[in-house]
Each structure stands twice: as C-alpha cells, then as structure tokens.
Specification:
The complex is a heterodimer.
Chain A lengths: L21 H6 L17 E5 L2 E2 L10 E3 L17 E6 L4 E24 L4 E22 L4 E8 L5 E10 L4 E8 L4 E10 L5 E10 L4 E10 L5 E10 L4 E10 L7 E10 L5 E10 L5 E10 L2 H9 L4 H17 L5 H16 L2
Parallel strand pairs in A: 1-5, 4-5, 5-6, 6-7, 6-8, 7-9, 8-10, 9-11, 10-12, 11-13, 12-14, 13-15, 14-16, 15-17
Antiparallel strand pairs in A: 1-2, 3-4
Helix pairs in contact in A: 2-3, 3-4
Chain B lengths: L1 E10 L2 E11 L4 E5 L6 H9 L4 E10 L2 E2 L5 H6 L2 E4 L6 E5 H15 L7 H14 L4 H5 L1 E2 L5 H15 L3 E5 L7 H15 L5 E6 L12 E6 L2 E6 L2 H15 L1
Parallel strand pairs in B: 3-10, 3-11, 6-9, 9-10
Antiparallel strand pairs in B: 1-2, 1-4, 4-5, 7-8, 11-12
The chains are: A mainly beta, B alpha/beta.
C-alpha cells in the first residue's frame, strides 16, 4: 500500500485534516474479531465487516450488492473501487428505511455505494460506523425529477478514522437531506459535493460533530447551484472539548443563471475547554444577481449565566454542561425526519456527552 | 437557619458588601430593602455562589453549614433557593427536563430516592396549576419567549417543585402587574410560610409586602444593614424615602 498518496495539509481544502494515522492503518491487517452489531430499526439492513458484505448478517431488501457504478477523482474516495452496494429505484418507487452497518476491526476498508432514484422515487437510509480502523466510503447519488432521499450518518467508531465522500446530482424538484453525527472516538472527514442540476431542487447537509481528547472531526461540503430556484441548507454544530478540534468548511456556489437561489449556512461552534479548537469557514461564490444567500458563523463557550442558573436549582456542573451542550446540537439533529432514527442519534449524542 | 456575620464581598475588586450581619430563624420572613447600588442583588448572588462574586471576609451558614465553602448546586441541595431578578432564558432545554434533573440531583445529594417521571410530572402539574401556569409552558424551553410576568411565575413554579428550606428572592416583584403580583405573593405564602422555612425577600418597593407580610424589614445601604424593624418600617420607607433613613 505504499501507493497511498494523501492530500497535504498545505492544500486549502485539507488544511484542517488529520490524516497522519491513515498510512499505518492502510498497512495494518484487520483483526476480523467483529463485534456483533444488531440492526436498530427493524427493516432491510446490510452489514459490512472490514468492507466485506456479510450476507448472514444482512437482509438487503431493495439493495443490490456487488460492483458499483461509481468513480471519483477525490483523493480518498478514489480508493473505493471494491464491491459495494447500490440502491436503484424506478419511477415512483418508495423504499422503507434501509440500514447499513459498517464494522471495522482495524486496518483499512474502502467501499463505494450508489443511490439512484428515478422520478418520484423515495428512499431513507441510515448508516452506522462502529469499531476501529479506517473506514473510507464513496457514495454517488443521482436523484431524478421529484425524487426524495433522506440520509442519516452516524459515526461512532471507538478509534481510527472515518472518511466519507458524497457526490450528488439533484434533479428538478428533487430533495436530498443528509444529517451526520460524529460522536465516537475516531477522527473523521465528511466530504461532499452536492450539485443542484434541476430547477427548484433542494439540498440539505448538516449535523453535529462532537470531538474530545485529541480527536479531529471535519466536514467539508460544497453545494453548487446550477439551476434556478434551488434551495440549500447547511446546518452544522461543532463541539470541541479537551484539545480536540472540530472544523466546518461549507461552501455555496451559485452558477451564472442559477437565479432565485436560496442558500443558507448556519455554522456554530462550541468550545468546552480553552485548549480546544473550532474552525469555521463559510464561503459563498455567486455568479448570478438575483439570489438570497444567508450565512452565519459563530463560536462560543457555554453561557455562564445559564450554567449558574441551572446550578442554583441543584444541577451539578457536569450535568449542566451536558444539558446545555445537548441543547446546542439538538437543532441540527432535529432535522432528521424519521423519529426512531432521530431518537437514536440524540441518544448517541447524549451518551457521548455523559461519557466523561 | 441563615446566619450571616460581618459579610464583605467584592465584584471585580470593587467592595460592595461591607460588613453585613443578618440572622433568619425558621418560620420568619425578612424583607431587605434599599436604594439602587446598595448591594441587594450582590447579597443574593453571594449567598447563591455566583462566580465573580468574591467574599473577602465574614461568614454565612445555613443550619450551621458553611454556605460559602459550597458550590452553587451543593447550596441548592442544602435547601437554598435563589429566585432571580432576571430569570435566564435557556434555548433547547425544557423546564420539565431540567427541573426533574435538578430535583433528582438534590434528592440524590441528600440520600433520597429519585422521583420517577410520573411522580415528578404529578408534582409539576400541581405546582404549575397553583401558579396558573399551563403545563404546555413547562414543556417549553426554560423562560424562552416568556413575558416578564411569566418568568416570575415560572420561578415560583420551580420553587414549589423544589420545595426549599430557605428562599432568597431577588426583586421577584419587578416587572409584575397588580394581578401577577398577587399570584406571586400568594405563591410565596403558600410554599414558604411554614414553621420550618424562611424567606429573604429583596425588594425596592413596599407593594409586594402588601401580599407577603414580613416579620422583619431591614434597610441595606452601602453594603450594610443600617436599620431593622417590623413590617411598619416598610411603610415608613415608602413614605419618607431611603435618603432620610440611611443617613
């Protein structure tokens, strides 16, 4: 694996990345001592252990497993050439909630996926990453006219690294909503290029990154509006404790002619310790004149007045911090439409907050 | 119950309390009145343990325990309730969620069993009902979007749920119209007017004292109690102003 060529932190798009552990993980051998992870939502589910599909732990429903029609020039995602999974739905088909469980036991695994929804089709997918090692994923998404895709990504590996790359094309009136939660002990990079190719398309990507210890979490999302009347939302919350860092780079590009674009970025960071770091980089690049793009970026600490108020009622300091931090991330996780999924993600975030 | 002796405190190195001495016995309601800047709010924050308020001399004990050595949440577990002049808004945290956590943390610190969700809701419903507060409001984020009067009622609901031994109420009457004043006054009497409890009412004006009859009234000026008396002292203050008395 000496061919592993990683982007340099000197490149602007990778300046906050922490990829130093990846070469060693790429050369390590998985222990293959997979912990059993039960599906949580009762529908079709697929389990990949160290990147290999495990039919005995899966019930794939509408999902096909095998070679994937997806390729990327992205420096990490281009490694995802192994067999993976494809969810392709025809016109007006709707799939129930599909769950994909990625277990890593050390080493590195690279898995591609493709989600292709024809006109009017609807799908909901939740992906969970557990274990350790380097889980590297490419997800190519194509949404036809009026298609709707809701994704929820739960990064709860105990250690190692999770790198995700989404490349999406969103057609006329179609909707893509992706909500991510980083609440494990691993480092991460959530990377996406979402392109609104059809009129009145909707793209939303956001979530909560919770980092402690020496963790490095990072999300880098580019939303490109190529057609008129598109709407995009990027709602991220970054929490950093100890000496950890959480970084958000969110970019909106509005191409010439993409009039009546409505873009919004809300990036908020919370520092739980003075030695922690939150980096926020909202970016706008607009080549059309009739657009509405709002962006907000703020970093702060927990409100001292609120902490004292809670303490004066008897709430101990650690519980008070957990309550306020929960409140800080809740509006990002509340974007998950599926109640059971939302509850599970909030429970994971709370478990992270209570694990002190 | 509460014994404050020669209390000195500074805020940002500026002396505010300059030798304050005051004793509250069980069953007593004391009013502390005084002009702006006398140190009334500082007194409540120092007793509550707010960061930034530094005690430089003196003592304060609650039932013999050194209050000043305790963290704010430990003072609460000991039975101290601080009613805020400006109750804090906490987006994203519901009243019931935080109050159940608060009450059970206090119970745990005292070695009592936690209240179940059902038992807690029963207590909350009773206390909210007594203050004319809708349960839906209690399920909303703490004080967010509440009017001034609603915030003060919410303080009283919290006090009813927590059921403290000693309440220090900082200008609980500010921002209340006449009707709300009566409701809040009735709440203080109902929850706190008991032989084993005590109240320190901090107020600018006499009008709350029409509803909550104090056993003692003290005038606080320039960081000290300069005069003490019975309920009639409040009326005298109202008539003659602080200037004459503090002189």
């Amino acid at each position: 694996m000496s061919a592993l060529a990683l982007p340099s932190p000197r490149e602007e798009a990778w300046r906050w990345s922490a990829l130093a552990a990846l070469p060693a993980l790429a050369e390590a051998t998985p222990r293959a001592d997979a912990l059993p992870v039960a599906p949580a939502f009762g529908g079709p589910h697929l389990t990949f252990i160290d990147g290999v599909y495990r039919p005995e732990r899966s019930n794939p429903g509408p999902v096909a497993v095998g070679a994937v029609d997806a390729a990327s020039a992205h420096p990490l995602a281009r490694l995802a050439t192994a067999p993976g999974w494809t969810l392709a739905l025809g016109d007006d088909h709707a799939a129930g909630l599909v769950e994909i469980i990625h277990v890593s036991t050390g080493g590195a695994n690279h898995v591609p996926a493709r989600i292709a929804l024809a006109a009017g089709a609807q799908a909901r997918i939740v992906e969970t990453f557990v274990g350790d090692g380097w889980a590297n994923r490419l997800t190519a998404i194509a949404l036809g006219k009026g298609a709707r895709l809701m994704r929820a990504l739960r990064l709860t590996q105990a250690s190692g690294f999770t790198s995700l790359r989404d490349e999406a094309e969103i057609g006329e009136g179609a909707s893509l909503v992706t909500v991510a939660l980083g609440a494990g002990g691993a480092g991460s990079r959530i990377d996406a290029a979402l392109t609104l190719t059809g009129t009145a398309a909707y793209a939303e990507m956001g979530g909560a990154l919770l980092a402690r210890g020496e963790q490095r979490h990072e999300a880098a999302v580019v939303v490109r509006h190529e057609a008129e009347k598109g709407v995009s939302r990027q709602i991220w919350r970054a929490v950093a404790d100890d000496t950890a860092s959480a970084s958000l780079a969110a970019r909106v590009e509005v191409a010439e002619g993409a009039q009546k674009t409505d873009g919004e970025q809300s990036l908020r960071g919370l520092l739980l310790k003075r030695a922690a770091t939150v980096n926020l980089k909202p970016e706008l690049e607009i080549f059309a004149d009739d657009v509405k793009c709002a962006h907000g970026a703020t970093v702060g600490e927990l409100d001292a007045q609120a902490l004292f108020y809670l303490a004066s009622r008897g709430v101990p300091p650690a519980a008070a911090r957990a309550l306020l931090t929960h409140a800080f991330v809740a509006d990002a996780l509340d974007r998950i439409g599926e109640e059971a999924v939302r509850d599970a993600f909030i429970a994971d975030a709370d478990a992270w907050l209570e694990a002190h | 119950m509460l014994k404050i002796n020669n209390l000195h405190a500074t805020v940002a190195d500026k002396p505010i309390l300059k030798g304050l001495t005051l004793t509250l016995n069980p069953g007593e309601i004391h009013a502390v009145m005084g002009p702006n800047g006398a140190g009334k709010s500082t007194l409540s924050y120092v007793l509550g343990g707010r960061p930034g308020y530094e005690v430089t001399d003196g003592t304060a004990t609650l039932d013999g325990q050194d209050l000043l050595a305790l963290a704010p949440h430990e003072r609460a577990a000991l039975g101290l309730f601080l009613g805020f002049q400006y109750p804090v808004e906490i987006p994203g945290v519901s009243n019931v969620q935080f109050l159940r956590e608060a009450l059970n943390a206090q119970r745990k610190a005292r070695g009592e069993a936690a209240l179940s969700a059902g038992d807690f809701l029963r207590v909350a419903r009773t206390q909210a009902g007594a203050m004319g507060v809708d349960m839906d409001m209690l399920k909303r984020p703490v004080n967010v979007g509440f009017s001034g009067g609603e915030k003060k009622r919410n303080e009283m609901v919290q006090m009813g749920i927590i059921d403290p031994k000693l309440a220090i109420l900082d200008e609980t009457d500010s921002g209340l119209d006449i009707d709300a004043l009566r409701v809040v006054g009735d709440g203080i009497n109902r929850i706190m007017r008991k032989p084993d409890k005590a109240v320190l009412l901090i107020t600018h004006y006499q009008r709350l004292l029409d509803y909550v009859k104090p056993d003692f009234v003290h005038v606080l000026a320039d960081g000290r109690i300069v005069r003490s008396g019975g309920a009639e002292l409040a009326l005298e203050l109202e008539r003659e102003g602080y200037g004459a008395l503090a002189a």
